Amino acid sequence: MTDKNQAKKMGINIIQSQQENNPLFDMLLKNFPQTIKDGQVSLSAIKMLLGFNESMNDISGYELTWTGKGLANALYSEPCQKQLKLQESFTPQTSANKHPNNAIIIGDNLDALKLLKSAYSEKIKMIYIDPPYNTGNDDFIYPDNFRQDYQKILREVGLMEIDENGKEKESESLKFFKNNQGSKTHSGWLSFMLPRLKLARDLLKEDGVIFISIDDNECANLKILCDEIFGEDNFVGDFIKQSKVGGGSDSKFIVKEHEYCLVYAKNINLTNEMFLKHDDDYLKRYKEIDDKGRFFWDTFSRRGLTNPIIYEIKAPDGTLIKDGWIRAEETFKKNYQDGEVRIIKIKDKWSVQFKQYLNLNGRKPRSMTTDFGGSIEGKNDIINLFDSDKIFSYPKSIKFISTLLKTRATSS
Predict the structure, then answer these.
(1) Which residues are in the DNA methylase N-4/N-6 domain (predicted)?
(2) Which of 21, 225, 227, 355 has the most Cβ atoms closer than 10 angstroms to its Cβ?
(3) Which of 311, 334, 357 finishes a domain?
């Protein structure tokens, strides 16, 4: 690895951080976040972006590499020669449906994303992806005619070689791909995901958000891959979703009942906060009202905080109450004077309480919940819609998808 001093001796001007207000750094961070790692510009990422073979030392900290990454980037850049053909049998023309706003695209999703990009680049507010989980049963890697369809790309990225007789032959890396089709290979899965996620990012508006479902098999790799594509600073968070209940007698160690949904923003500084509408049970606690709105009296004490703010509060009878509090002492004094904090006696003990106001925008979604609906709900939803559960496997529940949609619909 080349350090800063060595790079300077080589005549390389190092762009160090966004705090330097370097317009080139800002441009790379906004449009090509995969070129920024640990606050430094990755020369190898820029070379890969430009289609150059990596030959010089990288000055970045770390990156995710695998067999076929160059091929995956080449597939992202390869133009799509296909066209969409309207299937009128799926688009009934009625007086109320002359210009339908919805579309189902049947075909390779890589081609579909490229076709969508030509018309919807930077216009999509939200994307949800439910990719193959790479469990060993997924048929997602590359078809038998892969070598024939991408022969030019395979040569450019070095997956096709020339033997001693001048004949073209497959490299060991390409043989690795072909010999592991359909099996659980991280390299194959990452090569499948990279171009599709990069195209998805191209589709997002500047304030857009993407949700990606995944389980334990590839969650760690997906997080690092998305950090590279969307930028680590644009990671919004993840949902831990209960996918099933019960069973597990065939599990050797831990009964797995959950999945993840990673959330990334195109530009987190421009993305609106996430809210869900308040339900009736939640609203019941907000029984009181003043000129600022609805509220309930919540405890001012916060003993469970990692770093509680500890000081003494004097009760009306002079008793000193020492505890860990939710707000700083100066803020408490102001809130008390304004009537937003009270000190009352409950069962012979003094209690400090503050007005917890209702957020009119809604409530923030919780990262861990059982309210998303599991695999059984998803299967039942498909049966109710199509009178069959053979439409596609492992469907997500309508409740889960609609909840994700609502987190964006309630934002301005």
Answers:
(1) 124-352
(2) 225
(3) 357
The two structure tokens encoding residue 378: 């998803």
- Predicted structure pTM score: 0.74
pLDDT, the chain, mean: 81
132 vs 214: CA distance, rounded Å: 8
333 in any annotated domain: yes
Last residue of a domain, which of 342, 357, 372? 357
On whether residue 42 sits in a domain, the answer given is yes
* 310 falls within a domain: yes
**What token pair was written down for 155?**
């040569």
Q: How far apart are CA 359 and CA 330, in angstroms?
A: 24
Within a domain: 239? no
Cβ pair 295, 289 in contact under 8 A: yes
Q: What's the pLDDT score for residue 376?
A: 82
Q: DSSP character for 274?
A: P
In angstroms, what CA-CA distances link 31 with 25, 36, 201? 10, 11, 10
Domain count, the chain: 2
Q: How far, in Å, CA of 163 to CA of 173, rounded?
A: 15
Domain with 293 in it: 280-357
Give the pLDDT confidence of 21-34 residue by residue, as tens digits. 677 888 888 888 88
Residue 204: strand pairing partners: 124
Three-state SS letters, 96-153:
CCCCCCCCCCCCCHHHHHHHHHHHHCCCEEEEEECCCCCCCCCCCCCCCCHHHHCHHH
* Dist. CA 111–CA 117, nearest whole Å: 10
Task: Give the span between the Cα atoms of 405 and 401, in whole angstroms.
Answer: 6
58-62, 133-137, 336-340: segment of lowest average pLDDT = 58-62
341-400 tens-digit pLDDT: 999 999 999 999 999 999 999 999 999 877 777 778 888 888 888 888 777 777 888 889
Amino acid (one-letter) located at 170: E
| pLDDT at res. 195 | 94
